[in-house]
Specification:
Layout: H1 16-54, H2 56-81, H3 84-93, H4 97-123, H5 125-131, H6 136-147, H7 150-167, H8 173-196, H9 201-226, H10 244-272, H11 278-315, H12 319-346, H13 359-391, H14 395-420, H15 424-448, H16 452-462, H17 479-487, H18 493-498, H19 502-511
């Protein structure tokens, strides 16, 4: 059992050996996750290449459909799935194995339930696009693409929770291997459907769905044959339908936070359409968003790594190590931001040539790329900070920060600089810079004022281990039975999640200054 750290231990900087040890621990998770992210990015590029092969109309329709799917579906599924991350991370640190399996099952049910109304929305996509004033021909092509993408919602509802389930147990390399195999198969699948069978844009959509299905089947096979599931396996039962309050309390604000950031970039594209020469500005914005998506792979992987580390350490009652994880990851994030800024500045005249030869688009891209690099100087620390907040089960703070930074600061600045100050395309990116800067500053303020002893107390409320290791998980305990067991120090994480959330809520109100009392 870990001894409680003294006050000095929680306020000192880590030694060089501690920092190197933590870098190694984070790198063990973030390294394979980065490779996986790059592989999945290349898969998206392959799909875009095949859309371009089909023609300008198919490329426009497919791009519009993917943007619509991101806003209304993929961002929601991804955000809700991340709600299970702090529960699984802290459960793994506290050796509450069975809760891992239960949380996996509950999250799958949550995502499958969410996919149903999203599917109905996608079925009516053409009507929605026409109501928004989109071109009839492009809307028809986009509608065809998204109809064949509907099964992807259900496969992602299985895939996202499975990936988080493995990552919170520090199992990341198998995901990289499985992603590599699925991406390698993605090219021949596209060739078979698009070129050989001449299925057109429907073939590209089916290929994307097929690739996600392959990835899920490969990961499921690994989980089964490696027996990684045995300690956490819980037979599906009605217990999956209980204890949803804590999962939803984490999933909903995480989803809001993810959606707010994803939607901002779609909003930027809409604003580009209002500028002079919208074709050039929209094309340049597309190039820059693809570039920032590529750069984002690295801070995103770091964020996922530190989220797992912080959750594991808090669950294991080691607040000092959780704090070291935060410090080391933020230093790494600043280094990533500086590297991104240097890259975009040096490559501002060459990078756009990989995508186009149009002089006007190249000029706009060269002007905005250094600003995009400055944005990454704020984006990398704030993305990493979001990982720390997720690992310590405080996603509502992240949602509040994103709302305030992107929509109360960034949006007005973008409109002011782009249209009122007549700075045009560069002015829109200055709005994003203002959003990222304010987001990073608020995130750093919250993290620097975190009381790690209080955070470990919050985690302990979820991770009180039973006095007897053989005690079965009391999933069906009544409220009175739960209170009795807690008084005898036999409560565990599942009791707290299923029966009573009040201890966790009361502590979160004391330590989360940006949480509104209505959402906590």
């Amino acid at each position: 059992m870990d001894l409680q750290p003294d006050d000095q231990e929680l306020h000192r900087w880590p030694t060089l050996s501690e920092a190197l040890e933590e870098i190694k621990a984070i790198g063990k998770i973030s390294g394979p996750t980065t490779i996986t992210g790059l592989l999945l990015y290349s898969r998206a590029m392959i799909s875009m290449l095949f859309l371009g092969y089909l023609g300008e109309l198919e490329l426009a329709g497919g791009s519009l459909s993917i943007g619509f799917a991101n806003i209304t579906g993929y961002s929601v599924i991804s955000g809700l799935a991340m709600g299970m991350e702090p529960i699984c991370g802290q459960a793994y640190g506290a050796k509450q194995w069975k809760l891992l399996g239960l949380t996996l099952q509950r999250t799958v049910l949550l995502l499958l339930s969410t996919s149903i109304p999203i599917s109905f929305m996608w079925l009516n996509m053409k009507r929605i696009l026409l109501w928004c004033g989109q071109d009839q021909e492009i809307s028809s092509v986009a509608h065809t693409f998204i109809l064949f993408s509907i099964p992807d919602l259900f496969f992602l509802s299985l895939l996202h929770p499975l990936r988080i389930y493995l990552r919170t147990q520090n199992v990341t390399l198998p995901l990289t291997y499985c992603s590599a195999i699925s991406v390698l198969l993605h090219v021949p699948i596209n060739f078979l459907l698009v070129v050989h069978f001449k299925m057109g844009i429907a073939g590209v959509a089916i290929a994307m769905v097929w690739t996600n299905l392959n990835l899920f089947l490969l990961l499921s096979s690994f989980v089964y044959f490696s027996s990684v599931y045995k300690d956490s396996w819980v037979c599906p039962s009605m217990d999956c339908l209980r204890g949803w309050s804590s999962l939803l309390a984490l999933a909903i604000p995480t989803c809001i936070s993810v959606c707010l950031e994803w939607w901002w970039y779609e909003f930027m594209i809409m604003l580009c359409g209002l500028l002079a020469n919208p074709k050039a500005t929209i094309s340049s914005m597309g190039i820059l968003i693809q570039t920032t998506s590529l750069v984002y792979v690295f801070p995103s992987a770091l964020s996922l790594g530190v989220s797992t580390r912080v959750g594991n350490e808090l669950g294991a009652n080691r607040p000092a190590k959780a704090r070291i994880s935060m410090i080391v990851s933020l230093v790494c994030a600043v280094a990533l931001g500086l590297a991104a800024m240097l890259f975009t500045t040096l490559m501002r005249h060459q990078w756009g040539r990989f995508f186009t030869t149009d002089t006007e688009i190249l000029d706009l891209t060269a002007i905005a790329l250094p600003i995009a690099g400055l944005c990454e100087l704020g984006n990398c620390p704030q993305t990493t900070g979001c990982g720390v907040l997720r690992g310590s089960a405080r996603p509502t703070i992240g949602a509040n920060i994103n709302l305030g930074s992107f929509y109360l600061v960034g949006m007005p600045v973008a409109i002011l600089m782009g249209f009122v100050a007549k700075m045009g395309f560069a002015g829109l990116w200055l709005g994003l810079l203002a959003a990222q800067a304010s987001c990073a500053l608020l995130m750093l303020y919250v993290l620097c004022n975190t009381d790690w002893m209080v955070q470990v107390e919050r985690a302990r409320e979820l991770t009180r281990t039973c006095t007897m290791s053989s005690t079965p998980l009391p999933i069906s305990s009544t409220i009175s039975e739960s209170n009795t067991k807690k008084s005898n120090n036999k409560a565990n994480l599942e009791e707290v999640l299923c029966v009573s959330d009040e201890p966790v809520k009361s502590i979160s109100l004391e330590t989360d200054p940006l949480i509104s009392t209505t959402t906590s």
